[in-house]
Amino acid sequence: MIKGSNVALTALSEDVGTVIVSLGWISPTGEGDADVSVLLLDDNGKVRSDGDFYFYNNPVAADGSVQLLGKTPTEDGNEDRICFDLTAVPPQVERIVVAASRYGDARFGELENVQVRLADAAGESLLRFAIDDVDAVSAIIFGELYRRGEEWKFRAVGQGYESGLAGLATDFGVDIEDDAAEVDAQAEAEAEARAEAAVEVEKEPVSAVEAPGATDPVGPANGSGQPDPVAPATPAATLEAVPGPRRPDTTETEPTRRTGTAARPRTAKKKVTLPKMTRKSLAENESWKEARLFPVSSLKSDRDREMRATSVLLSVMAQVPEFGRRLTAAFGAPSGRTETFTEVSLPHGDTPRRPDGVIRVERAGKLWTALVETKTNGNSLKSDQVQAYMDIAARRGYEAVITLSNDVALEGSPLVDVKIDGRRKHKVALWHLSWAEVAHQAQMLIRHEGVGNAAHAWLLQELLHYLQHENSGCHGFQNMGAAWVPVRNGIDDETLCQGDPRTLEVVESWERLIRQVCLRMGGELGQKVLPVQRAKRGADPGTRRALLADQLCLDGRLQAELRIEGTPGVLAVSADLRTGKLRTSVEIPAPDQGYPLSWVKRLVRRLADAPADLHVETLVEGDTGGPRGTLERLRPEPADLLPKNTATRITGFRLSLFKGMGSTRGNAESGFIRSVDEAVHRFYTTVVVHLDRPAPRRAAAKETAGAG
Fold first, then answer.
1. C-beta neighbour count of 424 within 10 angstroms
2. CA separation for the pair 57, 452 (Å, rounded)
3. Are 628 and 618 in contact (CB under 8 A)?
4. d(C-alpha 626, C-alpha 641), whole Å
5. CA distance to 84, 108, 109, 128, 656, per residue, from 112 (Å)
6. Sign of CA dihedral 457, 460, 465, 466
7. Pairing outcome for strands 400-405 and 366-374
8. Residue 272: strand pairing partners
9. 118 within 8 A of 21, measured Cβ to Cβ
10. Could you count the other beta carbons within 10 Å of the beta carbon of residue 42?
11. Staple partner for 518: which of 36, 124, 377, 529, CB 3.0–4.6 Å?
12. Could you give the strand order of the β-sheet that contains 429-434, starting from the edge strand earlier in sequence?
């Protein structure tokens, strides 16, 4: 599409009750990013209330019409996706504006290939609009969905705002100042209440009978250690009341941050999250095992594991709407009443087929149906089996086939090859979920974002315990593949040649492993953790992996980069197959102000609890390396990090940890996969957490002061 053009959705597809809008961009440095937002407008071109403004702190509409799905890996890196259930949009809403904004003094001109794509419920891409001339703007309206009579149309807008998200939101009637004042007052009142409560507790402890929940840091308790499902709701709960990721690099001009206070100004009711502290057990001795809703000790065969895993997952999806919707929205399912079934018999030629499960979602009398095929314990999906389910779904008018296994799907590299009969009018989408992704979504809800009540939180906790049990078979990506050992041997004896197809298999396995590490880290931290794809490596996934395979043949290294929200730099992981060493590192920029000696002293102080074998290197201008040494040696003499030539300009510092990597291809105790997971986790928890968080730039602070 070109700027200003429009098109009716029904002219593009028959299945547009639900659509997926994807906003994408490429960062040449791998560090640039932006946040998406959605505004629902009435016939006056304004939001009906601030509740019609959806962004990262208000990602889901109560009626299911809007859901921000977050970032999804693509061949270019990542894109933000939004699911719209157009059948659920209130009749008073005439237009839906889709926008994105950058934070601080960042501009869209620093990004490349800024575009928006729209797909139907089956995942079929319908249109694309590339946006040019974005150099000076920090917010962009990518496009809008709008009504014309009984149908929906899409318009390519491409309008930029130099005033950022605040200016864009204000133009459409979002009362940023009132929201901020309300949040400030709420936060101040809660802070005073907590301070007074702390003083009273120090003076005289109060029993739980006299003041229920007064000593509970999460909320009122019901005696079982779980939060009380009938805790009173607050009209504007802050992030301190709803544990979740803060966005440290959000500027003061954004609608959820004033005077340093982040908030969820439009949270309708307080959500339940699991308590942070561990409950004291009443067991007589440590060998007693707590009773579980989903037992795993009786599982003896792969068939038992597949049947149990399918039943456990689908039942929780049906009973916990937030969780079920989180998984199915990405597949184009509408928001509605969900029912799930297992071991369903469906006719297929002379022999009926029995898919592992069926998901059905009803919305306004319409059904969305998906067949589910499950594999556990490292078993791979079978092409003929999936092909049969695709054919059955097409004949019966089902919308999707969903596969689940321990493997991780990659863009441009399907797990199973299926043939699509182009003569069929009805389209069926094929989607894949890794068990690691299922566990990630459960962790995000119960530990960081919260669910509707305590019973739902408990169900998700039981599901997570089941998935993480060693006997469940749902452990995520576990095996580097048959090519792993031959490639390592070829690197050791220098017989591996460029173009060897086995190196490409290893590169794909490495990419799957890194994506799984991101899922696990993100679930633990409650923050975005995404693999970085450098634009210079190309947009085509096949070309990019071929280059990495050639690099593996030349230097014997597998390399990857992870962007963890709220950290000062990209976390780099390098596996040297020649030396058997894993290196995890991060580069942090030098401060803008102060003296070099003050910088190195402060850095060493911040790393007081970091491992003594941490390597610290000073980065300087030019090709020559700067001073370096272990933290143990540098602690008494931080000045050793300064270049001897005082005229040499320091650009930053590189912190690195080294670890021996496992030799086996699988996830055994000495396995390579386990060693990578542990190395990343150790580096983050012992090094990265001690570093200064990236602060808003000084220019942004001045702009805010002027606006106030």
1. 11
2. 16
3. yes
4. 8
5. 26, 8, 7, 15, 31
6. positive
7. parallel
8. 451
9. yes
10. 15
11. 529
12. 337-342, 357-363, 366-374, 400-405, 429-434
Q: What is the pLDDT of residue 336?
A: 85
Q: Among candidates 379, 383, 386, which has minimal Cα distance to 401?
A: 386
Burial 272-306 (b: 16+ CB within 10 A, else e): bbbbeeeeeeeeeeeeeeeeeebebeebeeeeebb
Per-residue pLDDT tens digits for 235-265: 333 333 333 333 434 333 444 433 333 333 3
Task: Give 209: exposed, middle or buried? Use CB within 10 Å, 0-12, 13-18, 19+.
Answer: exposed
DSSP element (H, E) containing 125? strand 125-130
Spatial distance between the Cα atoms of 427 and 399, rounded to a whole number of angstroms: 7
Q: Report mean pLDDT in 10-residue bins for the chain, 708 residues.
A: 92 88 83 87 91 86 86 70 90 94 85 90 87 87 93 93 86 67 46 46 39 37 39 34 37 38 40 67 81 84 90 94 89 88 86 91 88 91 91 91 91 78 76 92 87 87 91 87 91 88 92 92 87 68 87 92 88 93 94 90 92 93 84 92 88 93 60 91 93 57 36
Predicted local distance difference test score (pLDDT) of residue 306: 92
- Helix, strand or coil, per DSSP, at residue 634: helix
Q: Contact 115/125 with Cβ under 8 angstroms?
A: no
pTM above 0.85, yes or no: no
Which one-letter amino acid corresponds to residue 241? A
Q: What letter represents residue 300's amino acid? A: K
List the 529-531 sheet strands across, edge first. Answer: 529-531, 557-564, 571-576, 581-589, 650-660, 615-620, 628-630
Compute CA distances 634 → 29, 107, 237, 342, whole Å.
Answer: 31, 39, 45, 61
Question: Which tens digits make up the pLDDT trace of 673-707?
Answer: 999 999 999 999 999 999 987 654 443 333 333 33
The pair of structure tokens assigned to 632 is 């143990």
By the 10 Å C-beta count (0-12 exposed, 13-18 middle, 19+ buried), 612 is classed as exposed
Q: Helix 541-555 vs helix 501-525: angle between axes, to the nearest 10 degrees? A: 110
Give rounded-to-5 percent helix, strand, coil for the chain: 30, 25, 45
H or E stretch at 211? none
* Rg of the chain, C-alpha, whole Å: 26
Query: Residue 610 has which token pair?
Result: 């970091």
